[in-house]
Amino acid sequence: MAQTTTFPVGSTTVSVTPLATNLAVPWELIWGPDNFIWMTEREGRISRVDPTTGQVLPLITVPDVLTSSEGGLLGMVLHPDFATSPYLYIVYNYNDGSYKEKLVRYTYSAAGTGSLSNPQVLLGNIPATSTHAGSRLLILPDRTLLMTTGDAQQRPEAQNTNALIGKVLRLNLDGTVPADNPVAGNPMYSFGHRNPQGLVRAANGKIYSSEHGQDAEDELNLIEPNRNYGWPTVEGNCNLPDEQAFCTANNVRAPLYSWAPTVGIAGLTYYNHPAIPEWSNTLLAVALRGGRLTQLPLSTSGDAVGTAASYLAGFGRLRAICVSPQGKIYVGTSNRDGRGTPATTDDRILVLENRAYVLANKSPRDAAFHLWPNPAQQAVSLRLPSPTTAPTTATVHDALGRVVRSANFVSGQQDMVVSLTGLGKGVYIVRATSGPEQFTRRLVVQ
């Protein structure tokens, strides 16, 4: 059995257990609509990981990925309507006469063990080098995609709004430029970035990014359209004379939080689950050189960060992080990236969980009823604990308890997609009734 350690978070005991081992630099972890963890590894492999057994199910090794120091296969995101639009977006480095970066869309087929095919380049020829490549991806509720890029060691280009590097870019899901971008025809969304490697949208609707500094300060930034984040003149806070003058003259957005000196801040996620109540409305960031998980409590408005706390020492370099609907946190180590000291089972995916919450509040079968995505917009996927053996109805109830959607599972079916078209924004209850059993989940519609 995998060895478990624990650490306290207030009155909650969090267990840490290796889930999957012997990986090769996991770069991205996503909780998928199939209730598996979707993972990229830097050398080019994309896999699904069973969160119960830790079994790694490879989908593809992207053929033209070229690793070089920090470069290779990086961020990934799934289409929010994956059941009807089974697209996967990745960003990676490749060689086309010189080292470059591109955004590519693949199509997923669930037949058999699953596969990815039909790659479509949505944005290519992005300048790159072996360091400062970014890159995380995030799809917003308006169905636009954000992509972070590092400065590729071309520092002044971070301030050039016509360059693709040192930016947060915004694209439509077909790779075109949204009509309402800050500059017409330009994918630039924000600029003045050095190497942002974390990107998340919180429940408050705000977008946050974690960014590598050079030596003095890493940053947690609140991303706003057409804002300047200062690099290369400003690193971290606007606290030096030259920085203060530049910030005033250029409307620089100062970070909400900085790590000084730098810790190599990487993946970033949002946590708001009763399993670990002390982490409600919190950003969680993982660090490479610092080898810790930082908890950053958000203010009610989301415009400020409270007192930070650090956890999860002893596992080396930490790069990727995601959260399941059950409130479990998955963290990927990065000890085989050439800058760490690998343990015999590295790299690993670690699962952080409050086991007492699961035991006290959820039966095993009830805990296995899943909704994805949540929050949702146009449709939600339902998964029962097991295929139906009795007539099973799914209902969506509004805040007054009224049934606003109803659908029946086909006999022997475990999964179903329920349309949310026409429902107003708000909190709903989804209930699945199968014979004497009833499963209930809270759903947020955006």
Features:
Neuraminidase; mainly beta; Secre_tail; four-stranded antiparallel sheet; 5% helix; Quinoprot_gluc/sorb_DH_b-prop; Immunoglobulin-like; Glucose dehydrogenase; 446 residues; Glc/Sorbosone_DH; five-stranded antiparallel sheet; single chain
Approximate shape: globular
CATH class of the largest domain: Mainly Beta
Chain-averaged pLDDT = 92
CATH structural architecture of the largest domain: 6 Propeller
**Beta-strand percentage?**
35-45%
**Biggest sheet layout:** 5 strands, antiparallel
Quickly describe the structure:
The chain has helices at residues 241-250, 355-361, 364-367, and strands at residues 5-9, 12-20, 26-31, 37-41, 45-49, 56-61, 73-78, 87-95, 99-109, 115-127, 137-139, 144-149, 167-172, 188-191, 196-201, 207-211, 218-223, 257-259, 265-271, 282-287, 293-297, 309-311, 318-323, 329-333, 349-353, 370-372, 379-383, 392-397, 403-408, 415-419, 426-434, 437-445.
What does this structure look like?
The chain has about 450 residues and is mainly β. The chain has two domains: about 5-360, 6 Propeller (Neuraminidase), CATH 2.120.10; about 365-445, Immunoglobulin-like. About 5% of the residues lie in helices and about 45% in strands. It has three helices and 32 strands. It has helices spanning about 240-250, 355-360, 365; strands spanning about 5-10, 10-20, 25-30, 35-40, 45-50, 55-60, 75-80, 85-95, 100-110, 115-125, 135-140, 145-150, 165-170, 190, 195-200, 205-210, 220-225, 255-260, 265-270, 280-285, 295, 310, 320-325, 330-335, 350-355, 370, 380-385, 390-395, 405-410, 415-420, 425-435, 435-445. A hairpin with a 2-residue loop joins strand 31 (about 425-435) and strand 32. It holds the Pfam family Por_Secre_tail. InterPro entries: 6-blade_b-propeller_TolB-like (IPR011042), Glc/Sorbosone_DH (IPR012938), Quinoprot_gluc/sorb_DH_b-prop (IPR011041), Secre_tail (IPR026444). This is Glucose dehydrogenase.
